[in-house]
Amino acid sequence: MQEIIALGGGGFSMTPDNLALDRYVLAQCDAVRPKICFLGQASAESADYALRFHRAFLRLGAEPSDLTLYQNTPQDVRAHLLAQDAIYVGGGNTLNMIALWRAWSIDEILHEALVQGVVLAGISAGAICWFEQGLSDSRPGGFSSVEALGFLPGSFSPHWDGEPGRRQRYHELIESGGIAQGMAADDDVALHFRAGRLHRIVAARPGASAYRLSLERGAVHEERLDAELLPDQP
Which residues are catalytic? Predict the structure, then answer.
């Protein structure tokens, strides 16, 4: 089964005391102790970010690793990624991450992993990357459209309730044709896609939601999609 989980925000990197979304990612893996690899290229492979990932997923009973492209790169990147039960992509600069992945053919390997049943997940840039396009602050001067991998149709915006200006800019770009119609998610919300279709929306806090944005008669229609609240476990 092809599984993609796009986090609008939250998880170990934003709410380390509430790992409900990270636990949800692991729950989709068919393994007692899932192997999960962190891709931190969007944050220029921040050592602190990777350390927080390892701590969180060890706490959740997983077997974490991280893949670096700057130094200490595994001899066989493809073999390492395809050996995982899940791959988790961190936040940061989407534009730079996608460019680096394409240079290393990571995009092709990720697609192969998806087809083979590896769960693909990520937050912010790590959520945008799975769609055709995303609303990103990767470029100077505010939010703009970036091209992504296209494993999922349309566009995506994370941090819907967490970053002022996102909603207005997304509406403007959809209306002008500068970005495809798509979806958005509040912080602490994850969109779970199965075989390319939206399967479930889950949240780690009450009131957080997802949204579907479409262009109707020249104006953007924003539909709120309720999320299922996940249990908060220690």
Answer: 124, 159
- Is 43 within a domain? yes
Three-state DSSP class for residue 209? coil
- In this structure, are residues 42 and 96 in contact, taking their beta carbons and an 8 Å threshold? yes
Question: Distance (Å, rounded) from C-alpha 18 to C-alpha 182?
Answer: 28
Kindly state whether residue 139 falls inside one of the protein's structural domains.
yes
Within a domain: 234: no
- Using CB atoms within 10 Å of the CB of residue 112, give its burial: 0 to 12 exposed, 13 to 18 middle, 19+ buried: middle
Domain span at residue 23 reads 3-229
Average pLDDT, consecutive stretches of 10 residues, N- to C-terminus, the chain (234 residues): 95 95 97 97 96 98 95 87 98 97 97 98 98 95 94 97 92 96 98 97 97 93 96 73
**Of 135, 164, 162, 161, the residue nearest 148 (C-alpha):** 135
Domain at 88, CATH number: 3.40.50.880
Label residue 11 left, alpha or beta by phi (over 0 means left) and psi (-120 to 50 means alpha): left
What does the block give as tokens for 90?
């961190």
Number of independent structural domains in the chain: 1
Q: Does residue 186 lie within any of the structural domains?
A: yes
Is residue 181 a contact partner of residue 213, using CB atoms and an 8 Å limit? yes
